[in-house]
Amino acid sequence: MAKISKKLKAVNAKVDKTKLYSISEALKLAKETSITKFDSTVEIAFNLNVDPRHADQQIRGAIVMPGGTGKTQKVLVLTKTKVKEAEDAKADFVGAEDLIQKIAKENWFDFDVIVATPEMMAELGKIGKVLGPKGLMPNPKTGTVTMDVAKALDEIKKGKVEYRTDKEGNVHSILGKVSFNEENLMKNYSAILDVIKKAKPAAVKGTYIKNISISTTMGPGIKVLIEN
User: Fold this and answer.
1) DSSP string, the chain
2) Which of 71, 105, 137, 155 is the one with CA 20 to 30 A from 65?
3) What is the structure's pLDDT at 228?
4) Which class is 6-59+165-223 in CATH?
């Protein structure tokens, strides 16, 4: 069993596991219980009353966080038709089959997001088994399969994050960094909460959002009061 450090024990003691904190209290506590020497990421997790085995209950999409994410994303654009547009919009890498082959043969992953124009999807499908588990496969639902490459790049660079339900019906997302002021973290919380609420499947009856918790990298989970 892993040994818990004194520092982690001390911050764990600050969190009442039986309490539901207001989002304002939870964010303050998340900042106080961050124990890393680097600027930790603040994360949010929603536990939803959905059954992801059914296609109509799979929640997936993307949102541009109004307060930013504090994370710099390297973007690979795969296109034959929008090369100049991608270069002008400051994509980190631009290519077509050549870069798909580089991923397949050299295990090249010096990027965080792939944006592709539709004509590249047949080729990309050939390495879907490699990209899928890493969450890198472009998808029209998240705006990463598009002819509007400039818009996609602009949104990603501004702080676009993708979200999707896992097998247990949980949705995880970045809220920002510990160094963010509370106002920007609150903006991001309100934005992602609104998106999740609007994505409620018609088949879901009764309570939809069962639990919300926030945490920082290596920090304790803090349960959030769900306000209507």
Assistant:
1) -PPPPHHHHHHHHHS-TT--B-HHHHHHHHHHT---SS-PEEEEEEEES--TTSGGG--EEEEE-TT--S-PPPEEEE-SS-HHHHHHTT-SEEESHHHHHHHHHH-----SEEEE-GGGHHHHHTTHHHHGGGT----GGGT-B-S-HHHHHHHHHHHEEEEEB-TTSEEEEEEEETTS-HHHHHHHHHHHHHHHHHT--TT--S-SEEEEEEEETTPPPEEB----
2) 137
3) 67
4) alpha beta
